[in-house]
Design a protein that fits this description.
By secondary structure, this protein is of the alpha/beta class. The chain has a single domain, classed as NAD(P)-binding Rossmann-like Domain (Rossmann fold, 3-Layer(aba) Sandwich), CATH 3.40.50.720. The chain is 48% helix and 15% strand. The protein is built from eight helices and nine strands. A three-stranded mixed beta sheet has the order 7-4-9. A two-stranded parallel ribbon has the order 1-6. Strands 2-5 form a two-stranded parallel ribbon. The longest helix is centred in the middle third of the chain and has 18 residues. It is globular, with a radius of gyration of 18 Å. The model has no long low-confidence stretch (mean pLDDT 88).
């Protein structure tokens, strides 16, 4: 049984709120770091030929939502989706990363079967080495989906959630952190 289902069955005994964040990014995030690392080689990978859309949220906005939820009354048992409230075309996000880094990269389409093969190899290497894989089959499945969007209207209305970081600002802050910490 999933944790959410268990909680929903016991809402009268356990006061809770469920927060479902979209793709979260910010300093220390390894997935975003991997993308910055690839871009630093002036390569902008594309994993789907179809137009893809995604919701994103900077980590500090997620923390804000957690604090708002912890102080909220009368919303026990509610489920809230979290993002910065925007719908981004995936291919345009790479452009913002490039801008933050001050570079121009070449977009390269990588077919799904290649990235799936890389994920299979990474999972095998992970089992042998005992280290977590940078990419796995589940992540590949996410990467090729047409849309990963959510509506934050309920969080705005009932929790007072107001995202403060634009994608451009969050990416810039994240990039600067990676540089300062020597990751890039």
């Amino acid at each position: 049984m999933r944790g959410e289902e268990f909680c929903l069955e016991h809402v009268s005994q356990i006061p809770f709120i469920i927060l479902r964040p979209s793709a979260v990014y910010g300093p220390r995030d390894r997935d975003v770091y991997a993308f910055f690392k690839i871009l630093s080689k002036k390569i902008k990978p594309s994993f789907s030929k179809q137009e893809q859309h995604i919701s994103l949220c900077y980590v500090e906005d997620i923390v804000q939502a957690l604090l708002l939820a912890s102080d909220s009354k009368g919303v026990e048992g509610e489920v809230f989706f979290l993002s910065d409230g925007h719908d981004y075309r995936l291919d345009r996000i790479g452009d913002l990363f490039e801008k933050a880094m001050g570079i121009r990269a070449c977009r390269i389409y990588i077919p799904g079967w290649i990235i799936s093969g890389v994920a299979s190899f990474a999972e095998l290497f992970s089992r042998l080495s005992g280290t977590p894989p940078l990419i796995n089959k589940g992540k590949v499945e996410e990467m090729v989906q047409k849309n990963w969007l959510c509506d934050i209207t309920k969080a705005e209305t009932l929790l007072g959630f107001k995202p403060r970081f634009s994608l451009a600002d969050g990416i810039k802050i994240t990039y600067e952190w990676y540089r300062k910490e020597g990751w890039l």
